[in-house]
Amino acid sequence: MSIQERPILLRNLRNYLTFLKDYGFSEIPSESGVTLKLPSGTNKLSHCSVGTDKRPEMKAKKIVTTKPNISIEEVREELGDCTRCDLYKNRKTIVFGSGNPHADLVFVGEGPGADEDEQGFPFVGRAGKKLTEIIEKGMNLNREEDTYICNIVKCRPPNNRDPKPDEIEACNPFLIKQLQAIRPKAIVALGKPAASTLLGRTVPIMKERGSWHEYEGIPLMLTLHPAYLLRAYTLENRRNVMNDMNKVLAKLKK
């Protein structure tokens, strides 16, 4: 490592440790047996000492056993200027998805909000910033390069209400094709509507978050929606979400 690179590494490390402390962690175990203890009563972590970082890393290239029958671009083209349900009447734009179409990890949310409807990309408002924080600071991944993000419906429900069953049904074929095109190593369902849609049943998210399921043979993790995390910003909820993401990282490492 060059001298010029050290300040950047230290800054990133401090940001990561601050993030973990905010999520209720007091120490970080590693596979080497070295434990990092975070100081209590302060968020100033510049004097922490650490052992070897053994956190799982995303591999640069995904290994697939079969070639997808359709590409993300083809799915978007098939969706077109969709009028398959009434959500199109009030939308400004279709929010299809964003990120790496060959990513190992896909996050599936509920539906676009006002910011997403304005900009045309998923998770760009307050909940999106929280999701980016979880991905980049908590998981040490790059949102655009290491993940793909989409929703169960592609148009904003009025007043940010939950999508109706017929709206989900109209969009579901395109969600299915998105996931078929990407064929990730793991999927994370953000919140009850996404989890219920992917599993085909009503999911009690507070009871089942943190548990592994399968979607078309792909490991599926259920966790809380970032918007809920902002509304109920408790230490327990923050810690639970990070524990869920650590399970995802471990799965990606296999």
UniProtKB/TrEMBL annotation:
GO biological process annotations for this chain's record? DNA repair
Q: Does the keyword Metal-binding apply?
A: yes
> Has UniProt tagged this entry with the keyword Plastid?
no
Q: Which GO terms describe its molecular function?
A: 4 iron, 4 sulfur cluster binding; metal ion binding; uracil DNA N-glycosylase activity
What keywords are annotated for this sequence in UniProt?
A: 4Fe-4S, DNA damage, DNA repair, Hydrolase, Iron, Iron-sulfur, Metal-binding
User: Top EC class per UniProt?
Assistant: hydrolase
Domain called Uracil-DNA glycosylase-like: residue spans: 96-246
Q: What is its EC number?
A: 3.2.2.27
Catalyzed reactions: Hydrolyzes single-stranded DNA or mismatched double-stranded DNA and polynucleotides, releasing free uracil
Matching InterPro entries: UDG_Type-4/5, Ura-DNA_glyco_family4, Uracil-DNA_glycosylase-like, Uracil-DNA_glycosylase-like_sf
Pfam families assigned: UDG
The family assignment reads: Belongs to the uracil-DNA glycosylase (UDG) superfamily. Type 4 (UDGa) family.
Q: What is this protein called?
A: Type-4 uracil-DNA glycosylase
Could you tell me which species this protein originates from? marine metagenome
